[in-house]
Amino acid sequence: MNTQKFFALVDCNNFYVSCERLFRPELNNRPVLVLSNNDGCVIARSNEVKALGVKMGTPYFKVRGLAQRHGVKVFSSNYSLYGDLSHRVMDVLQQLEPEVEIYSIDEAFLMLPGSRFVDLASHCHTIRERVRQCVGIPVSLGVAPTRTLAKVANQFAKKDPACAGVCCLETPDAIDHLLVQTGVGDVWGIGNRSVEKLRRRGIVNGLQLKQADDDWIRRQLTVSGLRTVMELRGVSCIEIDDSRAQKRTLVCSRSFGRPVKDLPDLREALSSYVSRVAEKLRAQRSLASSLHVFLLTNRFRTDLPQYSRTLTLHLPEPGSSTPHLLRPALKGLEQLFKTGYLYQKVGVMLTGLVPAGQRQLSLFTANASSDTELMTAMDQINRRWGRDTLCYGGTGRAKTWAGRQSFCSPAYTTRWEDLPQVGAGSEKCQENVLPDGIIEGS
DNA sequence: TCTGGGGTCCTAGGACCC
DNA sequence: TCTGGGGTCCTAGGACCC
């Protein structure tokens, strides 16, 4: 009997693209890409777009021409849709397996004791089929004795057609066979900086990294790097913090759709972000002890004067009500603001988060319960009727500074008026092809 | 013209204490 | 001339992830 423990990494294939295709099946086998907020960078690519050589994170303006020539369907990111479909995928996994660690919006680790299975691979194919059947999102599974190796296996599950979406590494030989074909930069935890250090030492593939000298790794790549190496050797030592549902910091910040130079616009934007971050804070039932406001210009415009400052404010006592955070934030912004710059972004970060139950009141605290009730009521209304149904006046109505979202698909699964219509003559099901060959989102 | 947003962990260095 | 040693806490910045 196999007493070994295995990790299976379930990863949704080109997740955001798969979400968009789910309601637009005519886009299957056609090039599709999804852009970041403000339509800035490419953050998801279909295989067809990858084949065109478009890299992850490329600024969209650099590939716009290429996209148009190849009839690439372009989408702005639609997080209500992706978040909802992510929940559905995770629900299915949790129905099938007792131990599921949700790692990101499109990935989860499953703990699979080897003893439970005669055939690990066929069990994984079953999981894959169930997710496709219940949600319609294609996933790949990589299975191995550690999370880092499961990540490696997953890459092969995706790219080797012979795997049919599942790759199990059950023997040392199988592991080394894949590691020698894996570039160090494709190992989870090894970023560009480390790739360069390793290359100078002649370490370019996963097997060489696995065999590297511990002391050298410890010195050059810190303990995080050493953990990665241990994981390649089959020693599981990277834990996923399950308490990550409770964030230790919360941020809200966006690039503007156009450069902003005046304080009133900055105040509106910052007020919106503070309202949003306070909502997130209350949703996880925490209070913030410190608040950081930051303001910066466009770092790519080297021809313009640059400015980037952060101001940290320690709150007199931890809190979560929007006005409690709004007042110091706006005061901080006024201290940071200087005329004569074209600003690209303003944002707020909350740190020193403590559970709401552990509130330490100051000697002079007024009764805060009326504030709490107001916030609870406001959050309930906004959850029921949609974001910003009730909002603070300072957040502005016109929001002329807001980012671009030119190609956004409907919130098919989370907004009544966006429910897909089925039947003959339904306009929502029809594709809208513009004369120049590029297809804009409906 | 146009370059995301939101996180975590680790380390070094400063402030402070005894 | 000469200026301790060790501990904690905090913060900023680096590296990495999706």
Describe this structure as you would to a colleague.
This protein is an alpha+beta fold. Helix content is 37%, strand content 20%. It has 13 helices and 13 strands. The protein has helices at residues 15-22, 47-51, 60-69, 79-96, 120-134, 147-159, 172-179, 192-200, 206-210, 214-232, 263-283, 322-336, 369-385, and strands at 5-12, 32-35, 42-45, 73-76, 100-104, 107-113, 139-144, 166-168, 250-260, 286-297, 308-319, 343-351, 354-355. The strands form three sheets. It has a five-stranded mixed beta sheet with strand order 5-6-1-7-8. It is globular. It binds a DNA duplex (18 and 18 nucleotides) through helix 3, helix 8, helix 10 and strand 9.
Q: What characteristics describe this protein?
A:
Alpha-Beta Plaits; Dna Ligase, domain 1; globular; 13 strands; 5-stranded antiparallel β-sheet; disordered C terminus; DNA-binding; DNA polymerase, domain 1; alpha+beta; 442 residues; 13 helices; 37% helix
The gross shape turns out to be globular
The helix-and-strand class reads alpha+beta
- Estimate the strand proportion: 15-25%
| Number of strand elements | 13
> SSE string, helix = H, strand = E?
EHEEHHEHEEHEHEHHHHEHEEHEEH
Q: Estimate the mean pLDDT confidence.
A: 90
Query: Widest sheet: strand order?
Result: 5-6-1-7-8
What does the main sheet amount to? Answer: 5 strands, mixed
State the low-pLDDT regions, or none.
426-442
Q: Per CATH, which architecture of the largest domain?
A: 2-Layer Sandwich
